[in-house]
Amino acid sequence: MKLHEKIALITGGGTGIGKATALLLAEKGAIVTVAGRRENKLHETVMAVEKKGGKAFYVVGDISRVEDTERIVQETVRNCGGLDILVNNAGVFKGTKITDTSEDEYDRIMNTNLKGTYFMCKYSIPVMTKRGGGSIVNIGSTLGIKGIRKSTTTVYAASKGGIVMLTKTLGLELTPNKIRVNCICPAVVETEIFETLGIPTEQIPERMKTWESFHPIGRNGKPEDIAQAVLYFASEHSSWATGTIFNLDGGVTAE
Fold first, then answer.
1. Is 232 a catalytic residue?
2. Is 253 a domain residue?
């Protein structure tokens, strides 16, 4: 699957799924821009891409702010000359019971995960349309399509459920623009996000091991697993797919 000279923008591109996706798309020939809040992590991704002979840029921004979503797209176009592929990967997670959830926490999760994705799409669409079409790949979650017993993730689940329906409706809306919109829904993927949840660092490997049994296939996901699926939906090999919700979850939703 080649992406020669295609221009890709990946939010949350400094670590985890975003970084793995940037490396893979660049390897396949895409010019990559990664966006996120932490400049040092974005710079590391760009350096990793360039070390492998690829071409990459970064833009610092917070997609929970609408003005930043517009600026991220504008800077991508200025640096790269256009936009063909948008990967909406940036997100925040916190597991809190609804009775313990504050308005600030609700806003932080919804504004990043759902609102940020929505407005990244909004500002990318005109640019893609001018280039004759493109591909939008949203990163959802198993929690956005399936209730998990004992899971206290109501806000996160609601935000990811919103992304699922955004994918379906936008996929239909954009057929005249020749822009395809698809969504990948992972279960537990081993990324740095777990370091932000208040779990003591020394306990994370043990927790990861525990989560393996959650997946019928017997292991957690790796960022590279998700990157391979993004590559498929970003490429012309998926030219007949739009509005698709792809469960990449080690069998969780098959139960």
1. no
2. no
